[in-house]
Amino acid sequence: MPLGLYLHVPFCARSCDFCHFYQEAPRRAELERYLLAMEESLGQLRLPREVDTVFWGGGTPGLLPSEDLRRLGLAVVRANGGCLPREWTVEMAPSTVKADRLETLLEMGVTRFSMGVQTFDAKLLESLGRIHTRSQVDGAIQLFQDFRIENFNLDLIFAIPGQRVEAWERDLQEAVAAGPAHISTYCLTFEEDTALWLRLKRGQVEKTDADEEALFFTRTRTLLEDAGYAQYEVSNYCRPGRACLHNLNTWRMEEWIGVGPSAASQFAGRRWTEPHSLNEWQERVIGSGKPALDEVILTPALLQQDCLIFGLRMNAGVDVAEIQRRHGALPASTRQFLERLVEEGLAVRQATLFRLTEAGRLLADRIGEEILGLDETG
């Protein structure tokens, strides 16, 4: 069974208006406390086998200075028995892509980079509260090319208030022209208590209507697939062989261990989250060595449910026979629900394999919510 290791780096220069993730300002004292606790936490790990994938998310991991990146990287490799993972991803903001950082990360063994562009349109960037500029995006892409880094991802957002489909198509074309191996495209969501959500509640911005969101989605797939990027999950496209292995591992409900404030884990029959506070997390790591909160025992019913929700988002679909082999027989209500998706044209069935249709992928979030509401005893 694959094993992933996720490190959460909670530091951001400034919170984007749409972001709801836990984060801290990058003050040196907090950075030092974080690094000490990460070294302690990683040193306490007793991995049963080598990790296959490592993912540094945030926050903005690329915000760390080169010497801190190296320090954290050495702790990761030590925790993994001195071995490098098959895939090692680091998230970076355009303003943090610097030659010295790239050189350090490549020397450490990082194999993949993910950069949050969101949009190439300066006005839309400003409306999202992003602090990077178009020139920084261009400079970061140029550095990837200078270092001959081909395996990088660009994150883009569509359905931004005021964004038209034609502007989105230009974003996609510019992303393709940059030559990444992977492109992620997300529909903007208004997370409660973010600055963007507050503007929505005050009537200062409006949501894109559902029909236009659907048009954004269908144009994305057409344009990217014509450019050689295959959709393998509702929001993710890649060149052949360049799917994100770490994400595939989590979507398939395998095992991963998260380290850092707010990091989540699924391992050895349990699921848990670490505290959403640098102070509390650091105190628990140093004090008890047990930062886990909100622990849940993974029942067959819960794993079946999650396998379906995340599996149906992938273009490969879900094999009901495989789910039942791993987690037991599906309830009648779940089997009936899958058959109803086929009857409504939202999925197709090939023997025991169910895959969403184009119409189904447009409703993937709603389908996931319906799976959550199914009667597990039926």
Task: Describe, in plain words, how this protein is organized in 3D.
This protein has helices at residues 28-44, 66-79, 99-108, 122-127, 134-146, 165-177, 195-201, 210-226, 245-251, 278-287, 300-313, 320-327, 332-343, 358-362, 364-372; strands at residues 3-9, 53-58, 87-92, 112-118, 152-158, 182-187, 230-233, 236-238, 255-259, 264-267, 270-273, 293-297, 318-319, 347-350, 353-356. The strands form 3 sheets. Strands 7-8-6-5-4-3-2-1-9 form a 9-stranded mixed β-sheet, sandwiched between helices. A 3-stranded antiparallel β-sheet has the order 10-11-12, with no helix packed on it. With 378 residues, it is α/β, with parallel strands linked by helices. It starts with a strand and ends in a 6-residue tail after the last helix. Helix 1 crosses helix 10 and helix 6 (165-177) runs parallel beside helix 8.
Number of helix segments?
Answer: 15
Please describe the biggest sheet, giving its number of strands, its sense, and whether it closes into a barrel: 9 strands, mixed
Integer average pLDDT: 90
- Spatial arrangement of strands, main beta sheet: 7-8-6-5-4-3-2-1-9
Instruction: Provide the structure class.
Output: alpha/beta
Q: Kindly state the percentage of residues in helix.
A: 40-55%
**Proportion of beta-strand residues:** 15-25%
User: C-alpha Rg, in Å?
Assistant: 21 Å
